[in-house]
Amino acid sequence: GAGVSQSPSNKVTEKGKDVELRCDPISGHTALYWYRQSLGQGLEFLIYFQGNSAPDKSGLPSDRFSAERTGGSVSTLTIQRTQQEDSAVYLCASSPGLVNNEQFFGPGTRLTVL
Amino acid sequence: GENVEQHPSTLSVQEGDSAVIKCTYSDSASNYFPWYKQELGKRPQLIIDIRSNVGEKKDQRIAVTLNKTAKHFSLHITETQPEDSAVYFCAASPSKTSYDKVIFGPGTSLSVIP
């Protein structure tokens, strides 16, 4: 079946612009996660959704970052007034939502802020 | 919150030798410990996991061990092959809520030299 998809695959933007990153999870997966991976670095947790609600937003780096999920499916991560330090690969993952389940990752969106 | 440390950050072994990656975690309530492999330019994928009710788990050339008392767990790869070259992430899942958030370690870059 179809895996997790993300769009766009690459995004180049100018400092100060807003960007929206999209994640389509595996159908039926209730849990959805956003991570940030800087070059050669680990997976930095940003935010988690269970259904449409986000019980854990503790990883969002600043108030310029926000995310929403509608219909228990597609999620968008929005970064306002982008800064050069926002440049990274943004990975989305989904899981069935039961306790302790495998996360299935999307291919990521590579964001470059000039 | 949970903090996961991982050592070494880089590891180079000869083909056929064994590789060991060690992780420690801070939250004694964590009860699920997955390992993800990320090949260059690709998305992370689950390779093996272990739950707190067992001390060891094997899957062909890969094994994980868990010491809950000491709060550390390890990945063992035997008879390494060039295709094992990748970044490996350990993770721990706190069980304080009903969802499956995982906290990832910083990763270990494994190189298998033919």
What does this structure look like?
The complex is a heterodimer of chains A (114) and B (114). Chain A is mostly beta strands and 114 residues long. Chain A has no helices and 11 strands. In chain A, strands 2, 4, 5, 6, 9, 10 and 11 form a 7-stranded mixed beta sheet that branches. A 4-stranded antiparallel beta sheet of chain A has the order 1-3-8-7, with no helix packed on it. Chain A is globular. The model of chain A has no long low-confidence stretch (mean pLDDT 92). Chain B has no helices and 11 strands. Chain B is an all-beta fold. The A-B interface holds A 31, 33, 35, 41-43, 45, 48, 50, 55-56, 58, 91, 95, 97-103, 105-108 and B 1, 31-32, 34, 43-46, 49, 51, 89, 93, 95, 97-107.
Main β sheet profile of chain B:
6 strands, mixed
The first-to-last residue Cα distance of chain A is 37 Å
List unreliable stretches of 5+ residues of chain A: none
Number of helices of chain B: 0
Mean of all residue-level pLDDT scores of chain A? 92
Average pLDDT metric of chain B: 92
Features:
A: 114 residues; mainly beta; seven-stranded mixed beta sheet; B: 114 residues; five-stranded antiparallel beta sheet; 11 strands
